[in-house]
Write the structure tokens for this entry.
Amino acid sequence: MIVEGLIFRNCWPTAMALLDSSDIEFRDIAIEGAAFAFQARGTSTARLRVDHCTWTQDTTGKLLWSELNWADVHGNWGEGEGDGWRCFDGSFFNANEIAGAVEIVPMQAPLTVFVWSRSRIVPVRVTEFSVTEDAHHPNLSPIRAKVSLGLRVLSYSDVSADNPAWNLFLSHQVIKEGLAAIATTSSLNAVMGSNVKIV
């Protein structure tokens, strides 16, 4: 069975509860406001696939993790001041005593492109990002900082053919091979003279 294209809003504590369920694929489901997006139980629960589903636990966008302390949500009962916030102590997929075979396919990340020049545009994955603050204003706001950025160029072997990064890398490769051919031709002319024709 395929469950596809649904939106669940404010389904507390669980949006999708599965008990002794098998052979189900969940595609492109958006879950907004729930402690658990999926909960699976039962010894015959197996062969589940979760494909490109999203989960926003805090729909206000400001409680987690700016206004609530970690202990108020995840600590032991009585440990934090706000045990009432335990409703956020959840997860995307929670399973207990199931037969197994669960596949969760991640969402495709937005495409990041690094532009060096008109002829050097490549798809990349950010591998490192750090900010070092060098100087501060008297109220401790940074006024000078250094940014370190590590990138890895994605090739056609890193992505599927339907991903825009695949065509972008292929275009870059064609341009690079063309520039290499021009550079080789220029080198031969320099060695053999400009009147030599290459056939």
